[in-house]
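Anyone able to model this chain together with zinc ion?
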Amino acid sequence: MSLVPYQSQLRWIEDQHQQMVDSVIELALINSGSLNLAGLSAMKQALTELFEVHAAEVESIDLPATESVDNNGQLYPQAVGQALSLHKHRQAPLQVLLMGHMDTVYGADHHFQDCTWVDEQTLNGPGVADLKGGLVIMHTALCALERSPWAGNIGWQILINPDEEIGSLSSSGLIARTALKHDFGLIFEPSLPDGTLAGARKGSGNFSAVVTGLAAHAGREHHLGRNAIRAISEFSVALDKLNGRVEGVTINPGYIHGGGPVNIVPDSALMKFNVRISEPGHEDWFNRQLDFIRQNISQLDGIKLAIHGGFGRKPKPLETDTLNLFNLIKATGKTLNIPVRWKDTGGCCDGNNLAAAGLPNVDTLGAIGGAIHSKDEYIKVDSLVERAQLVALLLMQLASGKKYWANQNTRSGT
Ligand SMILES: [Zn+2]
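re: yes, here you go
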C-alpha cells in the first residue's frame, strides 16, 4: 500500500519527537497518584492545556466515591478525581474512543518523583510509560489526523480516568456508557518491553475479609477470648488452597492486618485478596467456594466474618471483532515496518471494561517501556514517534476510506 498520501503527516510526527519527550517529562513531574486529588486536578489542568489545540468539546466529569475498608474493618467512602473527556466530530459515520488514565501508583509521599536519563534512549520516571507517554502518543496521533485532509471523517472521543490504578471502580459506569457510543476503542497502556501488545486478558476481583472475635486478657482469661487472627489465618489458608483447582484461576491473599498488644486476645483482623479468572464462568465457581469457606469460618464459636468487594473486571477474550482490529493494526504496522504482535496476559486494564460493554478494543498502543509500578519504570523515547505514527496512519487510512472497519455489534447512538 502506498504511503504517499500520508507521508507529510507521518513526517510531521517525526518532527514532534523533542516536543513529545518534553511533554512526557512535564506530565511525569506532576504527581498524580490515584489518591492525590490535588495532583490529579493539576494533571487534568495540564492535559486540558495540552489538548487545547484540538478545539474539541471538553468536559470534566465528577465520579462517585467507592467503598473502601480501613485497617479497623470499617467501610469508608473513597473519593477520586474527575475524569476528562474531549469530543470532536460527533456526526462522523465512524466513532473511535481513545482512552488512558491520568493516575499513577506513586502517591505524593512516594520517593520516586523525578525523571532521570538512563541512556539517550531510555528515560526513567514516575508514570513515563504507565501512562503519561501514552497520553502524549494519543494526542500527537490525533493532531496528525486533524491536520490531514480527512479530518472530520472520523469522530473521536478522548476519555481519561483518574482511578485506573485502583481498579476503575468509580469510573466503570462512565466507561460502560461511553463505550456504547463508539465503533472501536484504542487504549494507550504501555506495551510489553519488547513492543508486544496484550491480547486476551484475565478478569479480576478485589475483596476484603473482616473478622470480629472477642477480646480477653491473654493471661487471666485467655479461654474467654475468640482469636480473630487465628480465624483470618484459617480463612487465608482455605482460600489459598483453591489455587490450582481450576485452570486460569488464581487467588492471592495480599494484605493482612490485625491485633495489637500481645497480652490481649485479638478481636479484629482484616485480610485483602485478589482473584484472577480467565473465563466468565469462573466468577460463579469462585463465589460458591468463597461462600462455602465463609460459612465454615462463621461457624467457629464467637467469630463473625464479613466479606466486601467483588469482581470489578470481567475477562477480556480475543473475540472476532477484537482480532479483526488487531489484524488491521498489524497490517498498518507492516506498511511502516513496525512489527505488531500480541500475546495473552494475566493483567487487566480498562480494555476489560470496554470489552465487557461490547466495544472491540486494542489496549496497549501506548509507549514501549518497562518496570512499571516500580522506581525503575522507564520509557523508550523512540517509541513515542513510532506509536504515534502507527495510530495516526490507522486513523488516516480509515478516514480516507483506504481501510474499512465495521463491527458486528451496532453502537446505540452518538
Ligand atoms: Zn496503566
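The radius of gyration is 24 Å.
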